[in-house]
Amino acid sequence: GENVEQHPSTLSVQEGDSAVIKCTYSDSASNYFPWYKQELGKRPQLIIDIRSNVGEKKDQRIAVTLNKTAKHFSLHITETQPEDSAVYFCAARPFSGGYNKLIFGAGTRLAVHP
Amino acid sequence: DAGITQSPRYKITETGRQVTLMCHQTWSHSYMFWYRQDLGHGLRLIYYSAAADITDKGEVPDGYVVSRSKTENFPLTLESATRSQTSVYFCASGGSGTFSYNEQFFGPGTRLTVL
Fold it and tell me: Is the CB of A98 less than 8 angstroms away from the CB of B45?
């Protein structure tokens, strides 16, 4: 079945540094790749997404890149701040009959130290 | 978001008991989903529904039953709870078309403990 692998599982950075989280997916027909942020004790919330016909998308300090050939996509956070500390999940939407379901990675716990 | 709610928020039950987790959304989203979240596994899809009376299995459906008689409600039932079903359960809704790229909005979650 479809699978999404996410690395690293934990990431620790100093405030102001950049953070990069990488994901790979198995279904080459996947066409939508969102990223969710989950703060401690809260629900996951969408922070950025990218479609398969786009190679890069940026929103202020966060950006996502997609390499369809390698089946890789990455989240980049620049100028990290303590409030960026959270668990980040990548996801891929497999093109399986058109249903709008997502397969999530296992998550990356990001800690930003002042 | 107040538009999607789950109840109860916390539940403790015993092995073998039937438990139903409720999910209600006010956005008239076509799609609804149930996930479980366990450390090291991220969010795993249990069941999903594209519309009322249309449901399908996700990655980990064994031991769970769903129904969707109304667009706004999507209850999840554990017919005979097991300890391995101890988890945080999230309901989500989203999407208005089969091939749309719509955000999934998550409910606040239900923390279930099976003793």
Answer: no
Tell me the HSE value of B112 on the side-chain side, using a 13 A CA sphere. Answer: 32
Chain B nearest CA to A114, separation (Å): 26
| pLDDT tens-digit profile, chain A (114 residues) | 789 999 999 999 999 999 999 999 998 888 899 999 999 999 999 999 998 888 999 999 999 999 999 999 999 999 999 999 999 999 998 876 556 788 999 999 999 999
> Nearest Cβ partner of B107 from A43, A101, A107?
A43
Q: Is A23 on the interface with B (CB under 8 A)?
A: no
Q: Which two tokens stand for residue B16?
A: 């073998």
Q: Does B88 touch chain A (CB under 8 A)?
A: no
Q: How far apart are the first and last CA of chain A?
A: 41
